[in-house]
Write a structure and sequence with these properties.
By secondary structure, the chain is of the alpha/beta class. It folds into two domains: about 150 residues, Rossmann fold, CATH 3.40.50; about 170 residues, Riboflavin kinase-like (Elongation Factor Tu (Ef-tu), domain 3), CATH 2.40.30. The chain has ten helices and 14 strands. It has a six-stranded parallel beta sheet with strand order 1-4-3-2-5-6, with helices on both faces. The two termini are about 30 Å apart.
Length: about 325
């Protein structure tokens, strides 16, 4: 997949496009439906492309609005690459685009610049100055300018509408099972293991640590049951059950850095500088400050017992996780 960034008017794509437009934050079931529809429209003379914008248009319109992402940009790129998309266009959302009318966006960007043959969006997609353009606008324009258009209906997983906003709200409440259903995969955080203060080792629960960006929409601070994939420097992959704490570690630390600490069950190797992918299965309890280290140790022992109990209660809990996505 080739990635283009910068001004959309500077992007020269060598082929005509089957184009999907959207934010694609989290690449949830709704986004996947848009992608599948776009991929199905590909013919021999065109390629698949995704058009998204940075910063988020709402954030551009007001500096006071801070839009947090479910996944960082690099993970979005990785996920889109797995779907077989040929081109990812990450266009600067700037004053020029902000002022562009819906008609000019269609005529100058979609038709002339990108040579769009097929266009797919969500049914709630809006665009153009003042968000004057919508699915009906595009349907009318498709007939006039000779491209096909389909608006993909909003997907529901009762009682929720599948959207990035809903997923971020569920993360705030630690509702991981519901998040996973809407994503169509286990919510995950990945990164390179960093050397921390080794406090976990000192209290008998060795951890692998990841520092987390506050630009992300993180789960509520607390303890989670997880599955961890370790990719070592020789690209050997291991999958291990783990128990994670996300938060500020108020019992043992007073800094403001948000940290993911994962204690790997039945595993003791050092994995510093190796990459791990942490898939979240369910929420155990919120983070809290304990009166002393001994009380914290007792609670961690209980947390581990809770995790093992949950795993036993659901036979093949990890391997059958996909059943939650249907």
């Amino acid at each position: 997949m080739q990635v283009f960034t910068g001004r959309i008017t500077d992007m020269i794509i060598p082929k005509k496009l089957s184009l999907a437009i959207g934010n694609f934050d989290g690449l949830h079931l709704g986004h996947q439906a848009v992608l599948h529809e776009s991929l199905s429209k590909v013919s021999g003379c065109c390629a698949t492309a995704v058009l998204t914008f940075a910063p988020h248009p709402k954030q551009f319109m007001s500096a006071r609005i801070k839009i947090k992402s479910i996944y960082p940009q690099e993970k979005k790129i990785t996920l889109l690459r797995k779907y077989g998309v040929n081109y990812l266009l990450i266009a600067d959302f700037n004053a020029e685009l902000f002022q562009l009318s819906a008609l000019d966006f269609i005529r100058n960007i979609l038709v002339k610049q990108l040579r769009c043959q097929s266009l797919i969006t969500g049914s709630n997609f809006k665009f153009g100055k003042g968000q004057e353009g919508n699915a009906k606008t595009l349907q009318n324009a498709a007939q006039r300018y000779g491209f096909s258009y389909k608006a993909v209906n909003i997907i529901k997983r009762k009682p929720y509408i599948v959207s990035s906003t809903v997923i971020k709200r569920l993360l705030q409440y630690g509702m991981i099972r519901q998040v996973n259903r809407l994503l169509g995969r286990a919510y995950n955080i990945s990164g390179k293991v960093v050397l921390g203060k080794q406090l976990g080792r000192k209290i008998g629960f060795k951890t692998a640590n990841l520092y987390l960006s506050t630009d992300l929409a993180l789960p509520v601070y607390g303890v989670y049951y997880t599955q961890v994939t370790i990719i070592n420097n020789n690209l050997k992959v291991q999958k291990i059950q783990g128990i994670v704490n996300i938060g500020l570690r108020p019992t043992v630390c007073d800094d403001a850095k948000v940290l993911l600490e994962v204690h790997l069950l039945d595993f003791s190797d050092d994995i510093y500088d190796q990459h791990i992918n942490v898939e979240f299965i369910c929420f155990i309890r919120p983070e809290r400050k304990f009166i002393n280290i001994s009380t914290l140790q007792t609670q961690i022992q209980k947390d581990i017992k809770d995790v093992l109990f949950i795993a036993r209660q659901s036979e093949c809990f990890i391997s059958n996780l996909e059943a939650d996505f249907k």
